[in-house]
Specification:
single chain; 109 residues; globular; mainly alpha
């Protein structure tokens, strides 16, 4: 996933877009249409998290992503808890999204 903000301060709009992506990846993962390995390549990687930290990303988003990095361990050690953990991360992301202002910008192609 290419994100323009990786070397700059992250805006609220970019954080909200990232949260929407997190929810989508988690739901797709939960439904079995995405592997944990793929989810790690899209979002749940220490490299991506470090880039976001340098961009002064919301710590709540960082926490969700860091916990997402643990999903592979949960799947191998406690597979019966995987779906519960995915749902907890998704709910956490949805709670954080509510804190952001409504998006009013228009983008013209």
């Amino acid at each position: 996933m290419f994100m323009n903000f990786l070397d700059n301060i992250i805006s609220e709009n970019e954080e909200k877009i990232l949260l929407i992506n997190i929810v989508g990846v988690l739901e797709t993962l939960r439904k079995g249409n995405l592997s944990i390995n793929e989810a790690e390549k899209f979002l749940f990687s220490p490299y991506f998290i470090n880039k976001l930290k340098r961009g002064d990303c919301n710590y709540e988003i960082i926490d969700i992503l860091e916990r997402g990095c643990e999903l592979e361990d949960i799947a191998s050690l406690l597979p019966q808890n995987l779906e519960k953990n995915i749902m907890e991360l998704k709910e956490q992301a949805l709670k954080v999204i509510k804190k952001y202002p409504k998006f009013e910008n228009k983008f013209w192609v």
